TrEMBL record:
Signal peptide: none annotated. The chain holds residues 452 to 733 of 733 of the full protein. The lineage of its organism: Bacteria, Pseudomonadati, Pseudomonadota, Alphaproteobacteria, Hyphomicrobiales. This is GGDEF domain-containing protein. Residues 24-277 form the EAL domain. It comes from the Bacteria.
Length: 282
């Protein structure tokens, strides 16, 4: 109907759009401009190796400097995914993160990995591996320092195709982590077919430590299964010492969470890493 009425129909249609729909159109335009105009910033959250006590990596997390405030991903990533802008956004973040990590290395900071989130649309893009390769070479970054984070739902529907895509990525020399692990529907037996370096245990299980016996049982089971499959484990959302100690004692390899540090702008991250003193575990 809109088509037959031509421009007039479209105008009528736009007029009838709800406030929410118009707000969405506006946000989409602004987000597109933000990507072009460098209004997106990347913060870096430190990660610690629970066996050595050292900072072993960071996760790159995007923020949007918009109308005088810092907008968090929860407020614009869903929109970016819906509109397809997530591909440009994801490339932007990966480009920034690789260049930043390379710059820290060049400045003499002891090298560590950077984890970059990849959304389903990017993962499905047939040119995706090529883009990652181009970003790495433009940044002059050794691929071993890049880890791409994907989620269960992205790889579980077409296992064979996912294995092929993931193998293309690991052939570049980067590593892959499974983000938010435990919230999806992974069949545990399928996990071993994927070239995964790491499971990131979702914060919802960590939250229950030490009060919720079920969460602790699930976390322990995931940790021992991963160990048997030869996959490393990182706990997300660790907020206190009890959680860290429980996870470390249950065999968790690394942790990330406010207890170590919040996501930090680049200058503060560098300061954190430089000043971080390994404290002996009790
Ligand atoms: P995620 O990849 O699971 O990232 C971890 C989130 O947990 C981050 O939220 C981080 O700030 C938060 N977090 C870290 N430690 C703690 C803690 O101790 N307690 C609590 N309560 N939260 C903690 P953030 O930065 O708001 O990002 C949310 C999500 O947005 C990310 O979840 C990721 O799925 C998505 N995201 C962020 N940046 C990007 C990006 O560049 N591309 C894509 N595709 N998604 C992104
Ligand atoms: Mg992540
Ligand atoms: Mg996560
Ligand atoms: Mg999470």
């Amino acid at each position: 109907r809109v088509k037959r009425e031509g421009r007039d129909g479209v105008r009528k249609f736009t007029k009838c759009m709800s406030v929410a729909a118009r707000e969405k159109v506006r946000m989409t335009k602004e987000l597109r401009t933000a990507i072009e105009n460098d209004e997106l910033v990347v913060h870096y959250q430190p990660q610690k190796d629970l066996r050595t006590g050292k900072v072993c990596g960071v996760e790159a997390l995007v923020r949007w400097q918009h109308e005088g405030r810092l907008v968090m991903p929860g407020e614009f990533i869903p929109l970016a995914e819906e509109t397809g802008l997530i591909c440009a956004l994801g490339e932007f973040v990966m480009t920034k993160a690789c260049a930043q990590v390379r710059a820290w290395q060049a400045a003499g900071v002891e090298p560590f990995k950077v984890g970059v989130n990849m959304s389903a649309r990017q993962f499905q893009d047939p040119g995706m591996t090529r883009k990652v390769a181009d970003i790495l070479s433009a940044a002059d970054l050794d691929p071993r320092w890049l880890e791409v984070e994907i989620t269960e739902s992205m790889i579980m529907c077409d296992v064979a195709d996912s294995v092929r895509k993931m193998s293309e990525l690991t052939a570049l020399g980067i590593s892959l982590a499974l983000d938010d692990f435990g919230t999806g529907y992974s069949s545990l037996s399928t996990l071993k077919s994927f070239p995964l370096s790491r499971l990131k245990i979702d914060s919802s299980f960590v939250k229950g430590i030490p009060a919720d016996e079920n969460d602790m049982a699930i976390a322990s089971a995931i940790l021992s299964m991963a160990k048997k499959l030869g996959i490393q484990t990182m706990a997300e959302g660790v907020e206190n010492a009890e959680q860290e100690h429980f996870l470390r004692d249950a065999g968790c390899c690394q942790m990330q969470g406010y207890y170590l540090a919040r996501p930090l702008p680049p200058s503060e991250l560098r300061e954190f890493v430089t000043n971080y003193q390994e404290l002996p575990y009790l």
